Amino acid sequence: MTDINLLPPDQQRALLAQLLRQKAAAPSFALSPGQQDLWLWHKIAAQTRRIEFNVLFAWTIRSTWEAALLQQAFQTLVDRHATFRTTYGEANNQPFQRVHRQQKVHFVVTDAQSWPADQLQQAVGDLAHQPFDLEQGPLLRVQLFTRGTTDPVLLLALHHLAIDMWSLSILLDELGIVYTTLKHGIAPSLPPLARQFTDFVGWQTDLLHSPAGQRLEEYWREQMTGAIPVALPTDRPRPQQPAFGGACHGFVLEEALTQGLKDLARRLRTTLYAVLLAAFEVLLYRYSRQEDLSVITMTVGRKGADWSGVIGYFTNAVPLRVNLRGNPPFTTLLEQVHQRLMAALEHQLYPALSELAHLRPKAQTGQPQLTDIFFVFQKSHRFGMERVSSDREAASPIGVPAAGDTGAQVTLGELVLESFPLAWRADHRYILELMMVEAGGSISGVFQYATELFDPQTVERMAQHLTVLLRGVLDQPDTPIAHLPLMTAAEQPKPPRKLPAQLRNRLEKALHDKENP
């Protein structure tokens, strides 16, 4: 090792500066299995430019507001949660995350007072879908569009590597608390965090290498051995290499149907989630006539130690496999779905999708995959979301316009926010994805689909068929699944018209004469 005292003064200063930089370098950590999956998709997205992982929150501020206090509140949250001070990289083909000690919040105020509505919507949409630089950061961007005496628009954009939907609710809850206390001149005081997301990564790694982790692996292997992909009919053959082009179709279930389904779930001692998932699986069964179905869904991934207040990407995708042999009543299928959901939650800490890769290592491109179809139901009550009847600029709670849908409002302390219409730029990792959100008494849904496989009219009919099916489930939940209604009134076969008496007599006479020459 070189003696620093033997170096010239300029080299001593350079070496000292290098040593100080190394000492101050941010510590690096491995990625969780869920983050590793997102990282691989991020690399694919960089090549295709068709997939993004932006978590977006665009809302009009309907209460009084102060830009400086909003910026201070977001800075407080960046200081509090390490995931907002994290960047990502790769060394020797292994991804890592680096947590920085300090990070100035990305908070930009734009004067949009003179902009027409369409220009504002375009600007908000462009900034919302702007790609993130994972190596340089930041992975949280806040943009405030002021409009003079008109209510401003607040845009939050985050990369999915840093946050899941449970974490978004934590962020919003704490934003309301911090902003409100600052507004009253009080220093914000949140309960201290004993853990950060990187602590979870280490904890999960230890778990997966323990006997408990082996039991989790054995459960998922037993569940998925012999599983086959859903052979869903498509409008076009599946290409050898996916283009990842996507589109979406939004729809809404009216309040009466939503309330009826919630009452049905309570009466049968299950959840609305299970009812909607079971109905979706019946829809897939009716389309494919396949009795062994597997659908991917999401779990919160926070079972075990108390991670409830920690922000990060905990979400874990798991396969749910059901058996529909024998044309069971819907209530029987629902019981099976409920049991599978409860078991999946019990075993949710294992990266089950990696087990699918081991079970079907020779799955060919251009052929159906076990991970083709996805379902998720979001619990909007975590956001305190309510419907609003507004003709201003409110958007659907799920972000996709749908006939009959309305906007949503959320109250965060003394911040009152109303959903702002944000252009949905669809892509796809699954060939078909159904996302549903219950807010303010009705359910908003969106089908996201691969445009290389499905036409828009096909997916629109899917949404209509699902709605008809859910009404049938509500009316007669004990009906065998093959007999539940599916077709809309317009698709129902029309009864034959009654022939006029004179024409009927002539036809009967002609037939009689033919049979009796």
Would you give an account of this structure?
This protein has 517 residues and is an alpha+beta fold. It has 2 domains: 26-198, Chloramphenicol Acetyltransferase, CATH 3.30.559.10; 227-392 and 423-491, Chloramphenicol Acetyltransferase (2-Layer Sandwich). The protein has helices at 9-24, 33-48, 67-80, 117-128, 165-183, 197-208, 211-224, 255-267, 272-288, 330-346, 352-359, 456-475, 501-515, and strands at 28-29, 54-61, 86-91, 94-99, 106-111, 140-147, 150-159, 246-253, 292-299, 316-323, 373-379, 385-388, 407-412, 415-419, 432-439, 442-450. The strands form 3 sheets. Strands 5-6-7-2-14-13-12 form a 7-stranded mixed β-sheet, with helices on both faces. Helix 3 (67-80) packs across helix 5. The longest helix is centred in the last third of the chain and has 20 residues, at 456-475. The protein is globular, with a radius of gyration of 27 Å. It starts with 8 loop residues before the first helix and ends with a helix.
Any idea of the CATH topology of the largest domain?
A: Chloramphenicol Acetyltransferase
Question: What is the architecture of the largest domain at the second tier of CATH?
Answer: 2-Layer Sandwich
Strand-pairing-aware structural class: alpha+beta
How far apart are the termini?
119 Å
The SSE order reads: HEHEHEEEHEEHHHEHHEEHHEEEEEEHH
Runs with pLDDT <50, length 5+? 390-397
